[in-house]
Amino acid sequence: MRRAPAASRHKARTKSDARSSSEASVWEAEAVAGSSSDDAQVVSELERVGVGLPPGLTISWLGVSGHRLTYEGTSIFIDPYVSRVPLRSLLLRRTAIPDVALIDRYASVAGRVAGVLVGHTHFDHAVDAPAIARRYGAKAYGSASLGHLMRLHGVGDLAVEVEPHRRYELGPFVVRFVPSRHSKLLFGRKVPMDGELTCDHLDGLAPGAYKCGTVYGIRIDVAGSSLYHQGSANLDDAELPSESVDVFLAGVAGRNFTPRYWERILPRLDPRVIVPTHYDNFFSPLGRPQDFVRRVELAALPAEIAAASTDARLAALPRIDSTKP
Length: 325
Ligand SMILES: [Zn+2]
Prior knowledge:
Bound molecules: zinc ion
Number of domains: 1
Strand content: 15-25%
Number of strands: 15
Radius of gyration: 19 Å
Mean pLDDT: 89
Shape: globular
CATH architecture: 4-Layer Sandwich
CATH topology: Metallo-beta-lactamase, Chain A
Structural class: alpha/beta
Low-confidence stretches: 1-18
Order of helices and strands: HEHEEEHHEHHEHEEEEEEHEEHE
Number of helices: 9
């Protein structure tokens, strides 16, 4: 296809930038850090509670919704995001791309990597997926927007646009993508940076260009155990089967914008353990003291869970930069 004349390309970009910029500033107001001693206290208590995984299965929390699961020498990554984008990059629309040194430090693993799974393509879930897929020669599984992002990085051959509910066998891991929704962080009415990722050049990949794309929850079965990863606190009730899991990796930012979130999702998942994620400030780098998404109110979690579920227990994973080597 022929490219549009430069003048109209510029016009289109300006309009889209203006919208992204206003969304970004609202997102910033809603989601940017606070530092609550209550939140820190809750986290330190929950970190002492064991998740209770089967022998040989390990899970690492990379921050935000990022996790690495390893079993018998094979690993998968979910929403890996260690090249944390500073707030000024959002405000100044600077390019947000993977930082190889940070991936070396926080997202390297011995053995085979059988896949990189991405639940949606906002920057705090998707920035590092192309680089980690390339590094390990692993396929990256997710939406059409993820496929587009992978092609921008020249690794489109490693992208798998998933079919909802299909079983993908990745070494010992069986994964299924469940159509889901993103919480409406913009005043409870709108998903920030909604729509498909359509940026046509790596240089244009400012944080606001990482549009959400299709949203998935991800079910993982391994070693006789099951986990469900929900990066953003919302769901599509009609798509989520009633099928119990052992561990619910629950993104908690923005949960108060989703009506009756816990009451709707917990009966379907019936988890044994709920592990809150996505409560750390996703603009501040790893390696610094952990601060929190504003108004994440972790101290309210036990009562919220108790109101919706009688027997799930809460536990937290220490973030990878706080783990002693
Ligand atoms: Zn998001």
